[in-house]
Design goal:
Length: 105
């Protein structure tokens, strides 16, 4: 019997390349969406605040983040007044591969 490692990362389940990065960017995009919804801004006004054109805001609001790097999404969150904290942990094992996760507080 072949046992597969359980994962909550749908991108890993689908066998996509760099699943941790995809999941992190999806979560960052969700945080941007939530922040913009909370402010009740039109996409045009949101674009002015974020320094984006309205079509790019539309992409983010529809969960389309392929044009946006992790760094750019982090920058957009800071423009929305969000504080970003990056924490690097030591691995549990020398052989362990590191991972990237986004946790919203």
């Amino acid at each position: 019997m072949i046992r597969k490692k359980k994962t909550d990362n749908v991108f890993a389940v689908l066998g996509l390349r760099d699943p941790d990065d995809l999941l992190a960017r999806a979560e960052l995009t969700r945080q941007i969406y939530n922040a913009l919804k909370a402010r009740g801004l039109s996409q045009e006004k949101a674009g002015e605040l974020l320094g984006l054109k309205q079509p790019d805001v539309s992409l983010l609001m529809r969960g389309r983040y392929s044009r946006f790097s992790t760094d750019r999404l982090l920058h957009l969150l800071t423009r929305l007044g969000r504080n970003i904290e990056i924490v690097v942990h030591n691995p549990r094992s020398v052989k362990a591969r590191g991972r990237l996760t986004v946790v919203a507080a």
